[in-house]
Structures are given as C-alpha cells and as structure tokens.
Specification:
heterodimer, A: 216 residues, mainly beta, 3-stranded antiparallel beta sheet, 1 helix, 13 strands, 38% strand, B: 219 residues
C-alpha cells in the first residue's frame, strides 16, 4: 500500500520512461510518437538536429504562423501553391516605346511589401545617334539608364517603377527599340529594405561609407 | 482505498496532466519534456511562444525533407542554397562576344539572372576596349547581356553581345578586332524553395514614355 502511494507520488512529481512512448497511439514508431497535434508553450530545442545532405533535394522551408487562431503552427512553404513567393523572378518585355524613352513605368508592386531589382537587361532594336538633336555640332553618347525606383503615385500609393532610356539622346524618328528585363521581386519580411546611405565624396575618387547597415 | 487509487491511476494513464518534468530515455530531464531520441508528430506542431533571433549569424533555416524529416539547412553541405552566386570567367572570347553559351543549369529547377559584368582586352588585360558598330560609327548600340532558357537543351544559356558591334583594340595601329576576357556575375535562384518564376509579362507602351500597369495576379 505504501509502495503504491510512493509510486504514484514519484509518477506525479517526475516521470521517466525508457523505451518508446506513444500519445494517442499504442504502437509508437519513435521514442516519442504523438498521434495528433503537439503544442509547445515555450521553447522547442533540437540539440542534435541532423543537417541536410548533398543528396537531399526538393525540401521545403518551414515557417511559423503568426495569424490569430493558428498562432504558432509550424507550416512548410510550397511556393508552387502560392501566388507570391519570397522571391519571384518575372520576365518583362516592353514594346511600342516612345523612341527609346521608357521614362517612368509604374510596375504596381507596393514598396511596403516588395523590393524590386532588375537583371538580364536586353536592348533589342536600332542604335541611338551620338549627335545631340538640339545641337548637331556636339557629339555625345548621352547617359543610358536602367533602374528600378520607389515613387509616390497620385492616388497616394508608393510603388516600384522602372526607367530605361538614354536620358540625353533619342532614337531617330522611325527607329525603334524593345526592352527585355527580368525583374526579381523580393517579399519584404523575408528580405529587409535598408535605409539609403548618402556619402559626400567632396570631389574625391575614393571614399568610405558614411554609415554601415546593421547586419548582425 | 485501493479502488479509488486505481481510479486515479487509470485516469492518470488515460489523460495525463503533469506538473513536473518528464524525461523519455533520460532520468535527468533538462526541460519540461526532454526526449532523448526522435519525436514523431502525426499532425501539427504549434510553437506558441517562440523567441526572436537577434543574430543572423550562427542560425540555420529549418527545412522539411520530402519524407517529412526536419533538418537544419547548412548551405555548405547541401546540394544548393536558396540563392546561389557564381562568377563566370570567360577567356579569349571572340571579337563578336558570346553568342550562345550553355551553362548546363536546368531550367525547371533554377531561375538564372546576370547581375553584373565587365570585359578587358585578352592580350594585355586593358579595360580600354573599343566596342562599336564599324559600319555606323555615329550610333550607340545597345547591349544584350542576359541569361535565357533554351527549350532544346532544357538548360539556361547566356548571351553577351552589343548589337551589330565587335570588340576592337584602340591601342594598336588600325584598331584591329580583338579577343576579350569577360567576367559575368550570375545569380542562380533555386525554384520551388523560396523562389517562384512568374508568368512572362508584355507591356505595350502605346508610344508613351510613362505608363501604369498592374502586377501579376496575387501581388
């Protein structure tokens, strides 16, 4: 009798099990097998978590839900099931441009949600005459610009825009060009938008950044 | 007395609420539940109160394999990283540039982008290369330095040319055509992990210099 009470006491105070333990199952397949959900209130530590090997492929990234109602649920990301992935690689082909001047194309990606970068630029079409059209005596190659930038729109939104053009020179009338770019659209939350860094080089050739981004 | 004890015991085994530490394969548990071994969860795992990581370095992503194992993602060991970078170094390219180069990178598994390049004269490594359309010297030609899909080989190919142009060496008499060395910065995204290739978009500017378009569905 005393023994039983002692055993119960030990069981209640601290439990040790050797062998496999099943919760919701009588045939555990691992040292602990939970046939259902597992909720951890505080930390989950995996001290000997094995590493991915060179043979593993097509694995998925795990994320933790922050939505109320599903708070804390660990889920894998399958980008094939999503409209928007953390990184989206999208080819753009731009036609019927006014001469070479794609001065400001609003791409519609909200800058509080995305970071948009440009790559794989192709210029397909006629070349631009070096002579400055307003003063045919001066020869210049002008300034060719390929960039994305954030800009405020009349409706109050702030989105990513694209500029591709020779700012100084224009295609001759009747000539034409089409542009191809691959935009890399990064989802903020996975990728951080750092503040701009302005450095005054005071006319020097070399310089040092005025501040360093904090990237611990 | 026995009966009620048995009842308590039975109740204890059917639905357990423990207010002490539990060890599985250990008698010195170091947490409320300490499993020395593997854990299998048939349904969801909820982490209600996960801590924020204050440091980027020294942390691994956690991934789930196709057979449902959790692993740490060590990109020094794995077959690929989420985003990969390689510098391609081309020596003694033709004066016409690089017309078609097969990277042998699969088009379904990866998205490939060129995000930087430069070129020098092959013989003396001088950056003073003359790149021009020899028939129309008053023309500034555009470049096409990009990665593209080849549906014949199912691999990514590269092209690095200036339209209608060749590379010349302005330091030599007669400005002869010259072979060049080129470096290309290649950023290679693994599809299906965090990267998804989007649908191709064509924008008709209708002869305007500005325009406003909607992003693809879902953005």
């Amino acid at each position: 009798m005393k023994n039983i009470i002692q055993i119960i006491f030990v069981l209640l105070l601290s439990s040790y099990c050797y062998g496999q333990v099943g919760i919701g199952t009588t045939i555990p397949e691992e040292d602990l097998h939970v046939a259902g959900d597992l909720l951890v209130n505080n930390a989950l530590r995996m001290t000997a978590l094995p590493s991915v090997s060179n043979a593993d492929e097509d694995f998925k990234l795990l994320t933790r839900n922050a939505f109320p109602g599903q708070l804390g649920e660990v889920k894998r990301i399958d980008v094939d099931q999503l409209n928007v992935a953390p990184v989206n690689v999208i080819n753009y082909h731009i036609t019927n441009i006014n001469l070479d001047n794609l001065a400001d194309l609003d791409l519609g990606y909200l800058s509080n949600r995305y970071i948009v970068a440009v790559s794989n630029f192709r210029y397909v079409g006629d070349g631009i005459e070096k002579i400055y059209s307003a003063d045919r005596s001066r020869s210049t190659i002008g300034q060719f610009v390929v960039r994305t930038f954030e800009s405020n729109n009349p409706d109050g939104s702030n989105t990513w825009h694209l500029e591709i053009q020779n700012r100084r020179l224009d295609l001759a009338a009747g000539d034409s060009v089409e542009y191809y770019v691959t935009l890399v659209v990064y989802l903020r939350g996975f990728f951080r938008l750092l503040p701009s860094i302005t450095t005054d080089l005071n006319g020097q050739l070399n310089g040092t950044a005025s501040s360093t981004p904090v990237l611990n | 007395m026995y009966k009620s004890l048995l009842l308590i015991l039975t109740a204890y085994f059917f639905s357990s609420s423990l207010f002490s530490q539990v060890g599985i394969n250990t008698d010195t548990p170091s947490a409320m539940l300490d499993v020395v071994g593997n854990v299998k969860i048939d349904e969801s795992l909820f982490l209600e109160n996960i801590a924020e990581n204050q440091q980027i370095r020294g942390a691994n992503l956690i991934i789930q394999t196709t057979d449902n194992r959790f692993l740490k993602y060590d990109t020094a060991i794995s077959k690929y990283g989420p985003i990969n970078y390689s510098k391609l170094i081309f020596e003694e390219l033709s004066p016409d540039g690089l017309i078609d180069y097969d990277t042998k990178i699969d088009i379904n598994d990866y998205s490939v982008t060129i995000q930087g390049y430069f070129f020098v004269i092959n013989s003396n490594k001088s950056p003073e290369v003359l790149l021009r359309n020899d028939a129309e010297r008053d023309i500034v030609e555009g470049y096409q330095i990009h990665a593209f899909k080849d549906l014949g080989t199912n691999t990514w190919h590269l092209q690095a040319i200036a339209n209608n142009s060749r590379f010349y060496n302005p330091s030599l008499n007669g400005f002869p055509a010259t072979t060049i060395d080129m470096e290309i910065n290649l950023v290679i995204f693994r599809n299906g992990f965090i990267t998804k290739p989007g649908p191709d978009v064509t924008i008709d500017m209708q002869n305007n210099t500005t325009n406003r378009v909607l992003p693809p569905t879902g953005f």
